[in-house]
Specification:
Elements: H1 3-16, E1 22-28, E2 31-37, H2 52-61, E3 63-72, H3 80-89, E4 93-98, E5 103-106, H4 127-139, H5 159-163, E6 169-171, E7 180-183, E8 192-198, E9 214-217, E10 225-228, H6 232-236, E11 237-243
Parallel strand pairs: 3-4
Antiparallel strand pairs: 1-2, 1-3, 4-5, 6-11, 7-8, 7-11, 8-9, 9-10
């Protein structure tokens, strides 16, 4: 990182403050160049979102060396969502805290967010992301990662109902460990999901001690947690889904 690039990043962070700025550093004609991009995030619960056209235009000019964004009024330390996104982008990241100017750079390192206690970032660390990670880590199943914007359930969409068959699920009437619970909570469409744990123990999560009738989920703007299934949660449940590749014999 040269002084000119850092000055450009600082100017962009200042211009966008108190919102987050974002952009990319590319290699253009043998030198590093900062390309500011629009941030398409619309709510605080969405992680910053690089405008797709701006990013594509930058990539047409040169290889991406760094993805950049700012942390207004907070330290440059990467959040859990930052670390997950860095793994997905597979290139180093740079965070600038503004107005302090503190900078931190980090790179993909194989990070995985824990199933329990993960922070919320819609579209990245939300209830569906938790379900996807559970199935991948426990059963080796890779579910499609459907694009979703914050508040889709209030905009005439019902994504769980629309995509569950395409993702390999079918509805059942009885609960079994590993089933997906799809719930409708203060919304016109089912908008929340979790994983029924039964009385078993997640093999990769030893802190999840056996407890009858529990489920794993990630509520909006809260940390992911394990709760007893029943009461309001059962009342809100609209679908019990089982994956077509679910193990026949469960531990």
């Amino acid at each position: 990182m040269n002084k000119t690039v850092m000055q450009q990043i600082h100017r962009h962070a200042a211009a966008c403050y108190p919102q987050e700025c974002c952009g990319v550093v590319i290699r253009e004609r043998g030198r590093a160049v900062y390309v500011p991009c629009r941030n398409d995030a619309q709510t605080p619960s969405e992680h910053f979102i690089l405008n797709a056209q701006d990013q594509a235009d930058a990539e047409d000019r040169g290889a991406v060396l760094l993805i950049v964004h700012s942390h207004p009024d907070t330290p440059a330390q990467p959040s859990m969502a930052d670390r997950v996104s860095c793994e997905l982008h597979e290139v180093p990241w740079l965070i600038v805290s503004w107005p302090s100017g503190e900078v931190e750079q980090f790179q993909p390192s194989g990070y995985q967010a824990p199933l329990l206690g993960r922070a919320f970032a819609h579209g990245l660390l939300d209830c569906y992301a938790l379900c996807r990670d559970f199935y991948q880590r426990e059963w080796g199943l890779t579910l499609p990662n459907y694009p979703r914007r914050d508040g889709w359930w209030n905009n005439g969409e019902s994504l769980y109902e629309r995509y569950y068959r395409e993702a390999g699920f079918y509805p059942v009437n009885e609960l079994r460990k590993g089933d997906m619970l799809v719930m409708q909570i203060n919304a016109p469409a089912p908008n929340h999901a979790g994983i029924y744990l039964g009385d078993g123990l997640l093999s990769s999560q030893p802190e999840l001690h056996p407890a009858p009738g529990t489920f794993l989920h990630h509520r909006y703007n809260k940390a992911s947690s394990r709760d007893v299934y029943g009461g309001m949660w059962a009342d809100c449940t609209r679908l019990i889904l089982r994956h077509e590749r679910a193990p026949q014999v469960l531990p």
